[in-house]
């Protein structure tokens, strides 16, 4: 599975979710591969795990103001603070974006399971995926704000594990 | 006659959106009952009778396909139409749902019109 194909699937799925469910257009940023240890992040980040013959993790991240804007668009009501509804909305957007990437990947890689999203809000946190650190990063611009979708996926050591445990963490979180 | 509807999805956001779509649709809507997973749905259906169920697939505790199988195996719920509303878009998952007795399948992301179209075929 090439970086270019992952970028194409992520872009297509993200645009579809944003136009259909949020009524928003996002502009493409410049995608890249990230191999170094991730820098501490701020804002809202949602994680999902993928499991099957290929396995990995995906994240969707944005600033707190963008998360509130996305929730407002999805639920058609204003939000001026991060609350449970905003986090749930970001989790569902992540589920749709990476769920549709998963569906596209399944045509080539076979059936995969998708975990329930875990959503984190805070400052100065770091995510790390056990055993693999090469991520395809696809940025998008919503006006001047950056949204990022990250995905790392590789052949599985346990190809039988198509259905993953719903509570399985997609990645490790550390807070400085 | 008003139709009571159950929405099963672990996302409160999606339950809220589907509820709004139901209010806009040309359906004689009665009570709307919400559940966060298959277990909660089956528990609520012990005391509630509904005429339509909209269900996600990928949920904790009991997923939508297991819920669908349970509904179709029970006399009281066997004939209740179930529409799956889910990100699970692979043809194998769609076939699995159809074989279990789903009346319709809508892939997330969805438009209100897509949901209304499915409902129009049932009422």
Question: What topology does this entry show?
Answer:
The complex is a heterodimer of chains A (176) and B (123).
Chain A: H1 3-22, E1 27-28, E2 32-34, E3 41-52, E4 54-62, H2 64-75, H3 84-109, E5 112-114, E6 118-128, E7 135-142, E8 145-155, E9 172-175
Antiparallel strand pairs in A: 1-7, 2-7, 3-4, 3-5, 3-6, 4-8, 6-9, 7-8
Helix pairs in contact in A: 1-3, 2-3
Chain B: E1 3-8, H1 12-24, E2 29-35, H2 38-44, E3 52-55, H3 64-73, E4 82-86, H4 91-100, E5 104-107, H5 112-120
Parallel strand pairs in B: 1-2, 1-3, 3-4, 4-5
Helix pairs in contact in B: 2-3
In short:
The complex is a heterodimer of chains A (176) and B (123). Chain A is an alpha+beta fold and 176 residues long.
Could you explain the architecture of this structure?
The complex is a heterodimer of chains A (176) and B (123). Chain A is α+β, with helices and mostly antiparallel strands and 176 residues long. Chain A has a single domain, classed as 3-Layer(aba) Sandwich (Chemotaxis protein chec). Chain A contains three helices and nine strands, in the order H-E-E-E-E-H-H-E-E-E-E-E. In chain A, strands 1, 2, 3, 4, 5, 6, 7, 8 and 9 form a nine-stranded antiparallel sheet that branches. Chain A starts with a helix and ends with a strand. The C terminus of chain A is likely disordered. Chain B has 123 residues and is α/β, with parallel strands linked by helices. Chain B has a five-stranded parallel sheet with strand order 2-1-3-4-5, with helices on both faces. In chain B, helix 2 packs parallel to helix 3. Chain B is globular, with a radius of gyration of 13 Å. Chain B starts with a strand and ends with a helix. The model of chain B has no long low-confidence stretch (mean pLDDT 94). The chains are: A alpha+beta (176), B alpha/beta (123). The interface between A and B is medium-sized, with 27 and 21 residues.
